[in-house]
Specification:
This protein has helices at about 60-80, 85-115, 120-140, 165-170, 295, and strands at about 1-5, 30-40, 40-45, 50-55, 145-150, 175-180, 185-190, 220-225, 230-235, 245-250, 255, 275-280, 285, 305, 310, 330, 340, 350-355, 360, 370, 390-400, 400-410, 410-420, 425-430, 435-440. With about 450 residues, it is of the alpha+beta class. A hairpin with a 5-residue loop joins strand 24 and strand 25. The structure holds zinc ion (2 copies).
């Protein structure tokens, strides 16, 4: 349902006294008239031309009465439905129509001069042309700054998260994931290997392969137990290009959906069929939502964001279908607490951090990262992209011994690698011509 009171709103002085004074609690008093209703949100045009959107559900009392009357009035005027899909389209249409009419009158004016028509006729044509020109300028004036009002609920305190609630989400993945907690954080220790296969399906590969990580002890993942709503949620489009934004319940970190070049990792083929790949430290991580975990996790959270809020899969915790998501990629749950959802489209997991996070002061945006953060421990120099390679298979061929198979134009290549108990790693690289290169590294834990 899309309802529009008037496409382009500018208050005249005479209208100011009739503006609605809203009772919605926020820092400054909101004054302005109802503009439209869309997607269960009402849009209000403020006195300075700013547009505010408010969830319809939080509107109460006199405000609700006024909104309902307006919706009914517009429904009646419009015969229920309004044909437009976007306010922006209205603006463009009105701009184009008025500029066309303006040119039309201008041309008639020029013709009438040639025909030597009376002066007042020519003046009238010019005035018409000027009027529609002015109208088109007003129509294209950009004043649609959308500000989402922070509903009152975001100004309230959030109860301390129960560690046993978080622990229940990690339970199905133990003992390869282990957990503990103190009064501030829930800690997750893991070697960074998931409970499913990896790598298969990657078509845009940097030649990295997964090796175990030391996400243990003081380098464990940390989920804050006392989330606090951020006054301005930090967008993952312009932040957190470094480090993880969430930790999946199988112990795999979830990174920003955009890679460090700002590209959608999933869309450009960098990810395997589970939504993951390896970074420069041969560290396996997701960039998409690991929705495959729903098969094991059921309706429990599939991850926790590093602001402390849970990430659910494609359903609500009670099994009902997912409610509408906001720009952070979540909403307030029926328990009154915010949560995110994983989806199959961008931004997949977190659109913006609904909760406050601490940012590593040494990292400037967008290459900033949340603290505390667990770190991968690199082993070999960074590898380069292998053009046209498609990863077709990945197998554990023995204890600490793996074989990755890829093809380039129907020719097969391999990366075979293994390590011993003294942390000596061997990589045997067989390219598609059959040439073999063997590399050896000794690994020292760096984190
Ligand atoms: Zn990555
Ligand atoms: Zn939900």
């Amino acid at each position: 349902m899309y309802l529009l009171a008037h496409p382009i709103g500018h208050y005249k002085l005479s209208e100011i006294s009739s503006l609605h004074h809203w009772n919605i609690q926020r820092q400054d008093k909101l004054i302005g008239n109802f503009m439209m209703f869309n997607n269960n949100k009402i849009f209000i045009e403020g006195i300075d031309g700013k547009i505010f959107q408010i969830p319809y559900d939080i509107v109460q009392g006199n405000d609700k009465k006024y909104v309902d009357e307006e919706i009914n009035r517009i429904n009646t005027l419009n015969g229920i439905a309004s044909p437009s899909s976007q306010n922006f389209h209205f603006q463009v249409a009105i701009f184009l129509i008025s500029i066309t009419i303006s040119i039309f009158f201008l041309l008639i004016g020029i013709k009438s001069k040639k025909r030597n028509e009376p002066v007042f006729t020519r003046i009238a044509y010019s005035l018409f042309a000027l009027f529609f020109l002015a109208f088109s300028i007003v129509a294209c004036k950009k004043n649609k700054i959308i500000e989402t009002i922070i509903p009152d609920i975001y100004n309230q305190g959030i109860p301390h998260t129960s560690p046993t609630f978080i622990d229940s989400a990690f339970e199905p993945y133990k003992p390869s994931v282990s957990t503990n907690w103190d009064s501030n954080y829930f800690h997750v220790a893991t070697n960074g290997f998931p409970n499913h296969n990896m790598m298969i399906g990657i078509t845009n590969w940097q030649q990295q392969v997964p090796i175990p990580q030391y996400y243990i002890d003081t380098n464990s993942w940390s989920i804050p137990l006392q989330p606090v709503y951020a006054s301005i949620p930090l967008s993952t489009r312009t932040n957190f290009m470094k480090g993880a934004v969430a930790i999946a319940v199988n112990g795999i970190p979830i990174f920003n959906a955009l890679n460090n070049r700002g590209e959608d990792s999933y869309a450009i083929g960098e990810l395997d069929q589970w939504g993951g790949h390896c970074g420069k430290a041969d560290d396996y991580h997701y960039h998409a939502a690991p929705l495959q975990l729903e098969a094991t996790s059921g309706l429990k959270p599939i991850a926790f964001a590093l602001d402390g809020f849970a990430v659910y899969g494609s359903r609500e915790p009670d099994g009902s279908s997912m409610n509408t998501l906001d720009t952070c990629h979540g909403h307030i749950g029926s328990n009154g607490i915010y949560h995110y959802h994983g989806t199959t489209t961008y931004p997949y997991v977190v659109g913006a951090m609904r909760g406050k996070v601490t940012i590593d002061p040494t990292t400037p945006a967008p290459e900033n990262q949340i603290l505390p953060q667990a770190f991968a421990s690199s082993l070999r120099p960074a590898t380069s992209p292998l053009r046209e390679a498609v990863i077709t298979d990945f197998n554990m061929t023995g204890p600490n011994h793996y074989l990755l198979t890829y093809t380039i134009r129907n020719k097969t290549g391999y990366v075979e690698y293994y390590w011993d108990n003294l942390n000596n790693y061997t990589y045997k690289l067989t390219d598609t011509s059959g040439a073999v290169v063997t590399q050896q590294y000794h690994r020292t834990r760096k984190h």
